[in-house]
Each structure stands twice: as structure tokens, then as C-alpha cells.
């Protein structure tokens, strides 16, 4: 059988004279395979001949059980360097990591090229090289190991197995990825790359082989393109996820036949993400989805995430033009910063000169990018002229060695070689990685959420205010209110405190659940003033609708909703502080509840409004929200920031995104002996539903809110309650009090459309105008709102 290199070589007539002579020489097969590592060397060629083994892998699913992956690699909330042939070599990867990339993919290396290589370590530079016949096939450095993903090109499970065994023999990479998205002939002609999309059994069997070959702590991932139809794409994605072999899926939002200049089909990705989440939950795991396509820099990434619902994004062409595109502050100057540093890395790490010249030629040497937009005097420098940039490009083009290339940027190559690679050359990178790790540890992890019709019928809700207050808007003791208020107004409390109510008489939902101070103040304000201030249960609830494309702005939305209490909390006049848990086996929590109709556009808005904070490790998704709550009686304003989660009826697809365990209140230490171990969320949902008044119960069995009214032409100026001919009731009795089968059926429809909305707070900004104070309460990073600790700090009002 001919080697991959022999098959992939273009006709000799298409080659330059130097390469044509080489092709006609008696070069060994091993030498040709080494050339195969540089995929840009190939063009169209005949496909690999098939054999019995290949046919079997293409026709029969390999259902042998796989061992579990123990990798701790994080694919959420990141920006990654995409795999790029020739571009994604060691210097580009190191620069990308230095400027903010969370993970870096190496260039595609085909299976036969890496198999049979010798692993060598350069004692001076630390660079690890995989060599075949004195040619470098792949290189890496230990400093990038925790962030490095090796991409494999393969269409043969047996060869894929050998290739992964080779690259993971000494634990040099954090993950291995199968390329199923490259549309270039050098990849697809042998059945690899995007051609794998049309052979799903072979694709899945190859992933399984990679999982078996890789050590348990090395993750396996996959990168695909869209198929022509959404149905076929989701069908393929479903098969890939159900293999159980991968920990992450990257989707390039273009089809195989689309060119890079065509806009990515980003609108198709959200449905894929939702399907992956649903299947992952069924399998009891989490598989993040990464978006590739039209992500240019760190500024573009958040909008792409909002639009598509992915957990992370991947940059290709933006990083090819400027590896500092991962900086949230903006890219740095190519001629003044990036190109000189690229050359220093290339010299110090002995990067192949041909690759260095190619990568340097792809950098964006443009006048606008020649200004160093650093912190000092950003944008005030005069850009280089076209003539100056032309001189640089010419110097790069004419350079035949790293020494000549260094001279173009006035760099002394011998001085670079004399420096210690680990302590000096890579010092900036080491510092940047340490800072990034610190930020990750301090970042707040949240969850995601789905939305809902948070706009209740206020005219009906007003009549329901008394019962709503009993649903958990409990009042705390007077002593707590006085203690907390005076404490927040004290000038001696400028420093951060623990954020919980203090004092012997503080109200606790249970013995093991001290309540945050802000919740005590809010609960007591409601409990003491609800009889005289009927509007006290209404607050403004704001969200942001993601843009329909990366070119459109996000749209803010605000509506008034009714407070339905805190999770698992009820009013009890005989309990300490007047409040008690509804389910005595559990405490209450600071998570707030309201209600919605699951059919409304708000649900889609909130579900689509994914954010960095709103991605839960448990597979949940939530949307960001802010509550503005003014209590007239106490002259207090509560601005509550949180993530929102929707709990619909059993069987609804949005249930898979609800973080049941994380939002559950803590177990009551006084009731640990009973057999109840899990909080009954459906019971909580039912409890709130059954407390709604007759008008609200009826509102949930109407036609979908916002759709055309069936009697619009006859209504005129009539009020809704005058519309007795509408195909829905104006009121419904409480569940269990139905008078006929029709009411029973209508209540069933209402319950199906009813959803409980839970706000998971992480920050509360409390302004007390009566005492002219302002306090910021924040959830301790890494903890959840239901059981976590809070801090408090005084700020200028």
C-alpha cells in the first residue's frame, strides 16, 4: 500500500523545479511521510484504497464499552486558538497563550505522519520534537502542556489508535482532537477531514479508538462542520455525543462547500447546542460546544456566545493575522510587538525557518495595526507609513535564515540564544498564565437559564398579593431589622463583613441556614408593610435579548413581575421571626421565585441569553437578569443581580437545563434522620401554582401570549373582561375545586403552560435612602446562592 505522502503528492508538473527534482529522486517512503506533517504540501490525489478492515469500520458500529475519562480540562467560558495547518506551530501557540487564549489547538497532523516518529527533548530549550528521518513532524513545550490539544487527521481507527499512542506516550498534550471539518483537498481526498461527515460510523469508530488509546486523563474531542441540512447535522451530532468518547464538540458554522469569505451560519448553532445539552443530560455528563466561524477577537466572542448559546469560542483567521487578538483590551501592534516577539520565540526555540517565514508573512502588517495600543498612550502614536511597512515585508521575504530575519527587527540573535529559555524567554508567558489561572479561580461560576412570561397580569396579581406574601415573603423579627439597619448605617463598618445577619435574635430558616443580611432586610420590609403597601410585591425584572446577528445590538427588556417568595419558605406566625420552611426537612434559601408562561418569547430570550457566569458545571444554562425593587415604606432600593432558571412541567425540554441540585436548599440539621434526601422541586412548583388566584390560573390556558387575538376585529375598545366570546375562561377555580370536566381540562392545560422562575442571586446593591447608606453584598466566588456565604462592604451612596 502506498504511503499517505505518496498518495497526497500533486503531479510533478505542478511542483516548482526544486521540488520536482526531489520527487524524481529516490527519496525514501519514510522521508515522504515526514513531509506529510505539513498538510499544505498536498493537493488533490487519489483516495486511499479501501480494504476489508476499512469497510468494516465504515459499516459496523464498534460498541465495545469505553473507559471513563478523568480529564479536568475546562472547555467552558474560554477563547481558543483554532487548529490551522502551518500556522498553529509552537511560536503561534505560545503567543496566543500569552495574550489570553485559554486552550490552543496544534495543526492537523495525519496519522501515518506521526506514527513511527522518535520523541526527542532539547535539553537547552525544553522543546519536545517528534522526528522522523531527521524531519520535525510536531513540536511542543512543557509550558503549554496543560492547554495543548493535538489535532489528528485520520480515517482509520487502527491508525488513529497508533497515532494517539505515539503522541501521548510521555504525557505531552492535554487532549487529542479528531479533524472532521477541514474541506481542503489535502485532507478530504483520503477520506479525512470534512469527508468524515459523510461516513458517520467510521467517524464514531475512530473517536472510540482514540478514546481507548488515550490515557484516562487525556480528553478526546472532535471538530466538525455543518452539513447542508439542519436535520442531518443534528443526526450526526447525536451519534457523536452518544459514543461517549468525547468531552467537547467544536462546530465550524460553515458547510464543506462554503469558503472562508462567506458569512458563517451562526443562526443554526443554537439548536445544535440545545440538542447536545439534552443528550448529555440523558447520558449523565456534560459536553460543551465550541463555536468556530466569524469569531475574530475577544471583543467579538461574547456576542457570538450570546447568539449561539455555546460555552466557548474558537479563533482562526484573527489569530493568524494577530495572535494578540485574544486580549480583551484589544490587539497589539504587529511590527512593534507581535512580529519581534514571534522572531525571538523562533530563534530561541529553533523553529523551522520555512515555517517562521510563512507565519510571519501571514501577519497583518497594516498601517492601522502598526500602532502599539498598549496601556501607555493608546492610539496616540503615529502609524507606520505604507513605505515603512513595505520595507519590513520585503526584509521578511528576502530573509533566508533566522539571523537575517532577526536583523529586520534589529534583534541580536546571539543574545537571544544566550538567554535562558525557561527563566527569560518564556518569562512573560509564565507570568501571563499565572495571572489567568488566578482569574479563573476567582471567577464566579453560575448557571444558565431559560426564560418565561414574567409579565403577570398585574390587575389580577394585585388581588393575589396577600397570598403571595404567604408564599415565602416572610417577615424577620423586629430586632433583626433594627440590628441590621443600624449596623449598615454605622460609619465604623466600612470594611468587608461576612454579609450575614448577626446577633442572638437573628432569624434563621433552619438551625444550619443563616440568612444573608440583605434577605433579612428585604423579608422584614415586606412582612411589616404588606398590609399598607399592596404594591410591595412587584419589582422590575430586566433582561437582555441577544442580537439576531453579530452586527445587531442586544435589546434590553424590562417588565414588572410578582414576588412569589423565597424557595421553601412560608409565613408562620408561631415560628421565630415569623417564617419557617415549607418542607421542614430542608432550610429556605435566598433564591427568589416568580412565575411565567413557558410559551412566551421571553423564554427564548432568557434561554438564549447565555453568559460566562450562567454556565453550570452540571450542564445547566441560565440567563442574566437584574431586579430593581423599591420599598416605599422603608425607603430602600434592592438591585439584585442573578441568573434565572425556569422549571416547566415534567417532560418539557427546558427541564434539562434546570440545576436541580445546585438550587436545592440545604438539608435541615434538625431533620437529618428522615428518609427524604432530595428537595421536591415539582412539589414546590405545584405549591406556587395552587396559590395563584382565579384570574391568573385562567391566564395560563389562553392562546400563546403575544399571538393575534382571534376576536381582534370585534373587540374595538372593549376591555378584556368584556370579551365573553373568547375561547378561554376568565377565571378558574383552585385545583381540586373544579365544578366540571371542562374546568378540570382547562386547569390541566394551565398547569402544563405554567413555569416556576427561580432567580439565583450573586450580588445585591442595597441603598437605604432613609439612612443615606449603601451596601454591596456579594456571593463568595465558587459558592452557590442556595447554601453559600456572602460578603458585605460599604460604598459611597
UniProtKB/TrEMBL annotation:
GO terms for biological process: mRNA processing. Residues 516-647 form the Pyridoxamine 5'-phosphate oxidase Alr4036 family FMN-binding domain. Its cofactor is FMN. Keywords: Flavoprotein, FMN, mRNA processing, Oxidoreductase, tRNA processing. It catalyses: a 5,6-dihydrouridine in mRNA + NADP(+) = a uridine in mRNA + NADPH + H(+); a 5,6-dihydrouridine in mRNA + NAD(+) = a uridine in mRNA + NADH + H(+). Residues 1-58, 466-516, 708-747 are annotated as: Disordered. This is Related to tRNA dihydrouridine synthase. Gene3D superfamilies: Aldolase class I, Electron Transport, Fmn-binding Protein, Chain A. Residues 496-515 have a biased composition (Polar residues). One of its GO terms (molecular function) is tRNA dihydrouridine synthase activity. GO terms for cellular component: cytoplasm. Residues 81-359 form the DUS-like FMN-binding domain.
Amino acid at each position: 500500500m502506498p504511503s499517505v505522502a505518496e498518495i497526497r503528492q500533486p503531479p510533478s508538473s505542478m511542483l516548482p523545479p526544486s521540488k520536482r527534482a526531489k520527487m524524481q529522486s529516490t527519496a525514501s517512503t519514510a522521508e515522504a511521510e515526514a513531509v506529510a506533517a505539513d498538510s499544505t504540501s498536498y493537493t488533490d490525489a487519489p483516495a486511499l484504497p479501501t480494504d476489508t478492515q476499512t469497510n468494516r469500520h465504515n459499516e459496523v458500529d464498534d460498541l465495545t464499552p469505553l473507559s471513563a475519562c478523568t480529564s479536568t480540562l475546562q472547555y467552558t467560558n474560554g477563547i481558543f486558538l483554532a487548529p490551522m495547518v502551518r500556522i498553529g506551530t509552537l511560536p503561534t501557540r505560545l503567543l496566543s497563550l500569552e495574550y489570553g487564549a485559554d486552550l490552543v489547538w496544534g495543526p492537523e497532523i495525519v496519522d501515518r505522519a506521526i506514527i513511527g516518529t522518535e520523541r526527542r527533548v532539547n535539553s537547552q530549550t525544553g522543546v519536545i520534537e517528534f522526528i522522523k528521518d531527521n524531519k520535525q513532524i510536531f513540536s511542543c513545550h512543557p509550558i503549554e502542556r496543560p492547554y495543548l490539544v493535538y489535532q489528528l487527521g485520520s480515517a482509520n481507527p487502527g491508525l488513529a489508535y497508533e497515532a494517539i499512542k505515539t503522541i501521548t506516550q510521555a504525557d505531552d498534550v492535554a487532549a487529542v482532537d479528531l479533524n472532521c471539518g477541514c474541506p481542503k483537498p489535502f485532507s478530504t481526498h483520503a477520506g479525512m477531514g470534512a469527508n468524515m461527515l459523510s461516513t458517520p460510523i467510521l467517524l464514531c469508530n475512530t473517536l472510540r479508538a482514540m478514546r481507548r488509546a488515550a490515557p484516562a486523563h487525556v480528553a478526546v474531542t472532535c471538530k466538525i462542520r455543518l452539513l447542508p441540512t439542519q436535520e442531518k447535522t443534528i443526526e450526526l451530532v447525536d451519534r457523536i455525543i452518544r459514543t461517549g468518547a468525547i468531552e467537547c464538540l467544536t462546530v465550524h458554522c460553515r458547510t464543506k462547500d462554503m469558503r472562508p469569505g462567506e458569512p458563517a451560519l451562526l443562526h443554526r448553532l443554537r439548536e445544535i447546542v440545545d440538542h447536545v445539552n439534552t443528550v448529555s443530560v440523558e447520558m449523565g455528563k456534560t459536553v460543551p460546544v465550541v463555536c468556530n466561524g466569524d469569531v475574530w477577537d475577544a471583543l467579538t466572542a461574547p456576542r457570538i456566545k450570546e447568539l449561539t448559546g455555546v460555552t466557548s469560542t474558537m479563533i482562526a483567521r484573527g489569530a493568524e493575522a494577530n495572535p494578540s487578538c485574544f486580549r480583551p483590551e484589544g490587539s497589539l501592534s504587529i511590527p512593534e510587538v507581535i512580529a519581534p516577539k514571534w522572531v525571538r520565540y523562533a530563534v530561541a526555540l529553533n523553529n523551522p525557518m520555512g515555517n517562521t517565514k510563512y507565519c510571519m508573512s501571514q501577519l497583518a502588517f497594516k498601517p492601522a495595526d502598526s500602532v502599539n495600543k498598549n496601556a501607555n498612550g493608546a492610539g496616540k502614536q503615529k502609524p507606520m507609513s505604507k513605505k515603512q511597512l513595505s520595507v519590513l515585508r520585503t526584509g521578511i521575504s528576502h530573509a533566508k535564515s533566522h539571523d537575517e530575519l532577526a536583523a529586520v527587527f534589529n534583534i541580536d540573535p546571539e543574545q537571544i540564544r544566550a538567554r535562558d529559555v525557561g527563566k527569560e524567554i518564556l518569562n512573560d508567558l509564565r507570568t501571563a498564565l499565572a495571572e489567568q489561572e488566578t482569574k479563573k479561580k476567582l471567577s464566579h461560576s453560575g448557571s444558565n437559564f431559560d426564560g418565561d412570561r414574567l409579565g403577570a397580569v398585574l390587575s389580577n396579581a394585585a388581588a393575589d398579593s396577600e397570598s403571595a406574601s404567604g408564599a415565602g415573603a416572610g417577615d424577620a423579627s423586629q430586632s433583626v431589622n433594627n440590628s441590621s439597619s443600624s449596623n449598615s448605617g454605622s460609619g465604623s463598618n466600612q470594611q468587608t463583613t461576612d454579609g450575614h445577619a448577626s446577633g442572638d435574635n437573628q432569624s434563621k430558616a433552619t438551625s444550619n441556614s443563616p440568612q444573608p443580611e440583605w434577605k433579612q432586610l428585604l423579608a422584614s420590609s415586606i412582612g411589616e408593610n404588606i398590609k399598607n403597601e399592596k404594591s410591595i410585591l412587584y419589582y422590575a425584572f430586566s433582561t437582555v435579548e441577544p442580537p439576531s446577528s453579530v452586527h445587531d445590538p442586544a435589546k434590553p427588556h424590562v417588565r414588572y413581575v410578582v414576588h412569589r417568595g423565597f424557595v421553601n419558605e412560608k409565613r408562620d406566625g408561631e415560628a421565630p421571626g415569623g417564617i419557617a420552611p415549607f418542607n421542614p426537612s430542608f432550610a429556605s434559601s435566598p433564591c427568589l421565585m416568580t412565575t411565567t408562561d413557558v410559551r412566551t418569547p421571553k423564554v427564548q430570550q432568557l434561554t438564549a441569553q447565555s453568559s460566562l457566569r450562567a454556565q453550570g458545571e452540571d450542564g445547566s444554562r441560565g440567563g442574566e437578569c437584574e431586579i430593581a425593587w423599591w420599598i416605599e415604606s422603608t425607603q430602600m432600593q434592592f438591585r439584585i443581580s442573578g441568573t434565572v432558571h425556569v422549571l416547566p412541567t415534567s417532560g418539557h425540554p427546558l427541564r434539562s437545563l434546570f440545576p436541580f441540585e445546585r438550587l436545592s436548599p440545604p438539608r435541615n440539621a434538625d431533620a437529618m434522620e428522615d428518609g427524604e434526601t432530595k428537595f421536591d422541586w415539582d412539589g414546590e412548583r405545584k405549591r406556587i401554582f395552587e396559590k395563584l388566584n382565579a384570574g391568573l390560573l385562567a391566564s395560563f390556558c389562553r392562546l400563546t401570549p403575544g399571538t393575534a387575538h382571534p376576536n381582534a376585529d370585534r373587540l374595538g375598545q372593549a376591555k378584556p373582561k368584556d370579551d365573553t366570546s373568547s375561547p378561554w375562561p376568565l377565571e378558574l377555580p383552585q385545583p381540586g375545586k373544579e365544578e366540571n370536566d371542562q374546568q378540570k381540562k382547562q386547569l390541566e392545560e394551565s398547569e402544563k403552560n405554567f413555569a416556576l422562575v427561580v432567580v439565583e442571586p450573586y450580588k445585591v446593591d442595597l441603598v437605604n435612602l432613609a439612612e443615606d447608606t449603601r451596601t454591596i453584598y456579594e456571593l463568595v466566588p465558587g459558592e452557590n446562592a442556595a447554601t453559600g456565604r456572602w460578603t458585605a462592604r460599604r460604598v459611597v451612596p
